[in-house]
Amino acid sequence: MDERVRELLERVRATAVTVGEAAEATARYAGKCAGQMVDVAKLNMKIFDLRTDINALLRQAGQAVYDAHRGADTDDEALTQLLAQIDGKYAEIDELKERVSVLRAMRECPHCGASCGREDKFCKHCGGVLN
Predict the structure, then answer these.
(1) Residues whose CB falls within 8 Å of the CB of residue 130, separated by 6 or more in sequence, listed in order
(2) For 46, left (φ over 0), alpha (ψ -120 to 50), or beta?
(3) Residue 105 confidence class, pLDDT cut points 50, 70, 90
(4) What span, in angstroms and rounded, lies between the C-alpha atoms of 96 and 78?
(5) Which residues does 108 contact at the CB level (< 8 Å), separation at least 6?
(6) Is 63 helix (H, G, I), strand (E, B) or coil?
(7) Angle between helix 3-69 and helix 76-104 axes, rounded to 10 deg
């Protein structure tokens, strides 16, 4: 076989190996990102559910306050328990938001203040270089 053809085939083989390795790394990264997106979606659903629960508890507390305003006897202990439940659910939301932030691995652009991914090289908002 001609030496130039052999050299060309070797370069093609080396390029194919490089492309294959890059494809493998990209697939791994995409899989990791997809898994993180699923986890973030699950956490956001939990936050939504907690906010729904909070709204129901706030409605109950508001009704108790209004009933007291209208002169009805109120159970102060029950109202205190409702407020404690609301506080607990807000604390859960704060914890879940922190977990979402960690999963997203966000950081702030030093140029415009937009949220960027931890591994981003450039800001998606202003195009500035991220350190």
Answers:
(1) 107, 109, 110, 116, 120, 121, 122, 123
(2) alpha
(3) confident
(4) 27
(5) 114, 115, 116
(6) helix
(7) 170
Neighbour count for residue 116 (Cβ, 10 Å)? 22
Q: Are 96 and 43 in contact (CB under 8 A)?
A: yes
Average pLDDT over residues 115-122: 82
Spatial CB neighbours of 16, under 8 Å, sequence gap ≥ 6:
none
Element containing residue 45 per DSSP (H, E): helix 3-69
Angle at 12 between CA 9 and CA 17, to 5 degrees: 125
**Tens digit of each residue's pLDDT (9 = 90 or more) over 28-58:** 777 776 777 888 899 999 999 999 999 999 9
Q: What backbone torsions phi and psi does residue 107 show, to the nearest 5 degrees? A: -145, 165
pLDDT greater at residue 113 or residue 7:
7
**What is the C-alpha to C-alpha distance for residues 51 and 128, in angstroms, rounded to an integer?**
36
Mean pLDDT of 102-130: 82
Give the model confidence (pLDDT) of 57-70 as tens digits.
999 999 999 999 99
